[in-house]
Design goal:
Length: 225
């Protein structure tokens, strides 16, 4: 029997969270925002839904948009691990190296970032909103920031240029049947109509994580004018 990609890596078959340590650069969603309120209503619906056996919900406190992917301890191949660290270096050494570099990194931008919702991601690995910068200028700012972070941290992921901004609220732990997929998609599409078309995110945070349920901030990226 096959499972979605998160099972066996980020989640157990029963939906409980697995250890999956690493680091990342994200913008947490403001829990007082209009979007957070709309997502929280959807979260409660999904938690009690008859299809809840299909997914594992992420805690609202963890909701975020990834700006730059960072590393995962279990994946140390070229493009997934910094080129200036040995592949056998402890994760803690990578954390410390990134933290030192990012403390000196010039954000060169003035958050908040303006985003818009462009729909749901396909129901393949999880439930997540697909996001887009709200203007060409904002797109250039965020893509340029990703390029500069890649240079500073000596890591360029294989999907760097094609990366799709998103905000995940759940991981699939079972492949839905066609009928289940349609039912879940209808629920999500109805919820989308109650969400704001645009929203804002604050300054990027360098975070350490042990699993997908909590992203612990080590520092904010700052402008150094």
């Amino acid at each position: 029997m096959s499972y979605p990609s998160g099972v066996g890596k980020k989640f157990h078959i029963d939906g409980s969270v697995r250890a999956f340590p690493g680091n990342t650069l994200i913008c947490h969603l403001d829990q007082a925002s209009e979007l957070s309120g709309a997502l929280l209503a959807l979260y409660e619906t999904l938690r009690a839904h008859r299809l809840s056996h299909l997914y594992s919900l992420l805690p609202p406190s963890s909701w975020h948009m990834t700006v730059f992917e960072g590393v995962v301890d279990a994946v140390r191949t070229s493009g997934h691990w910094p080129s200036d660290l040995g592949a056998d270096a402890p994760l803690r050494e990578c954390d410390e190296s990134f933290e030192q570099k990012l403390a000196e990194f010039d954000l060169r931008l003035d958050p908040p970032f303006n985003l818009r919702i462009s729909g749901w991601q396909p129901l393949v690995d999880g439930i997540g909103l697909r996001l887009e910068p709200s203007t060409p200028s904002e797109e250039n700012n965020l893509r340029g920031l990703r390029d500069r972070l890649s240079d500073a941290l000596k890591i360029r992921h294989p999907e760097h240029d094609a990366y799709v901004f998103h905000l995940s609220i759940a991981y699939l732990i079972r492949h839905p049947s066609p009928a289940e997929r349609n039912g879940l998609q209808d629920l999500l599409d109805a919820a989308l109509e109650r969400m704001p078309a645009a929203f804002r995110l604050g300054a990027p945070e360098f975070c350490r994580f042990e699993d997908m349920f909590e992203f612990r901030r080590l520092l904010y990226l700052e402008r150094h004018d």
